[in-house]
Amino acid sequence: MSGDVYSIKCWFEGHVQGVGFRYQTVAIAKGYDVTGTVSNIDDGRVFIHAEGDQAEVTAFRAEIESEMSSFIRRTEVKNATSPRIYNGFSIS
Known about the structure:
By secondary structure, the chain is of the alpha+beta class. The protein is globular. 25% of the residues lie in helices and 43% in strands.
């Protein structure tokens, strides 16, 4: 299992589209050693898949939830350990 990293998949619900959520997420990601992607999904939520060291990913998620708290009504999170699939952090 060498090369596996901690990863989370997050779905943010609320007034999260059209408010700069994805761009703010990318800006926050620059402060952490995380890779992944953020995207709007058709049902109005924002989806984030982030991977890296568990402490980094956890702190990254906490900062998103803090910075964007006025827009988030509910968060669903699934975590796992899996091979790294991203290089960098981007909007998709």
